[in-house]
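Sequence in, structure out. First:
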Amino acid sequence: MKVWVICEGRINKNPEKELCNLYSERINSIKNSGISFFEIKQASKKEINNILSKKNPQTTFIVLDEKGKMYSSINFAKKIQSYLKENIKNLYLFIGRPEGISFNFQDVETISLSNFTFSHSLTRVILCEQFYRCATILTNHPYHKD
């Protein structure tokens, strides 16, 4: 499965971006997790609408939203594993601007990383780390300890 984290607005060059790149490299280096590709991209509203228009049975969209469902790391790994079993080939996760997502996402699953509010750049780092943790859980790597 290919995973894209789509960010509305700018992605600043900062230490958080370096951490995201590190986690992306780690995720992409893990074999047999089912995650064959992981990337963070900046996208305009037009580009996001173009992505949303490509909806098909092998593509899933998730929006990060403060009111979304919260998962433990283990349950998030199980969610990703269920997508793999459903033969989902493309997973897009959307992070909105500080004022929220600029498109209608009523029919899209929403998840929340925490009850806390995080900056855009820190949200990306946390999401990348959770995908790395997910990949290690799926491959029984010792990074995640129960």
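Second:
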Amino acid sequence: MRFVVVTGLSGAGKSSALRFLEDAGYYCVDNLPVQLITEFAKLLKENGEIERAALGIDVRTGAGFDELESSLASLKEMGIDYEILFLESDDLVLVKRYKETRRVHPLAFGDRIEAGIERERKKLSNIKKHSSHILDTSRMLTRELKAEIDKIFVNDRKHKNLYVTILSFGFKYGIPVDADLVFDVRFLPNPYYHDDLRPLTGKDKAVSDYVLGFEEAGVFLDKLEDLLLFLIPNYISEGKNQLVVAIGCTGGKHRSVTLAEAVYGRMSKNDEYGSKLEHRDIDKDRARGK
């Protein structure tokens, strides 16, 4: 029997994860008192008909949550192997989600949402260290979370705890607040000043050929790739789950898009981490009629 414990920060997507697991054929139970975990697992084992089960556990269980580790140890003694799926997200994203849904954080105790999140992180710190899979949902769309759940628990593919986002942006619209590494490519000639290239974007071949036609662009790509290949294994060993590499030009439409596409093309071939590509500002000039 495959037994999955789904836990993590409130607002990080645990309910969605359980729903996706249920859709995939897992027998799911949410917010079961920790003291009943061993009894629940024993019933499943004796039943023999349920091959896959998932159990949602979080701080809503109250003081009993502190007994989670001992309950999980009991499962091992019963011969039941289990996996822990831990869902987390950035503080700013969690606060935004709570404000949008107008829900109260379970550990806020009448305090600010940020205070509740801080208390919860401390309470979950040890269980996170022992988690089998950690998913940072800060930048994940619902369909992307479902794809990750299916990959791990349906298709049995290797989970990649580090997720690298290559993000293009325009400096005139501000530096992305969640960027870990920021690179300025305004040192390259700007296609904007060519009438035939101005209405296009870095995804168009004409603009891409123009930008990559400069020797400096190739040197930049080689050096950035070397830097990322050095940094990423070290980030993984330190337990980092999300890395946002932001590449910016003036408007986020030509140079940054071209180079972000090129960097993603190189980095997405690596099997040690997941990766995706985003162009934050690619359509903003167009929307303004420029």
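Remark: The first strand starts at residue 2 and ends at 8.
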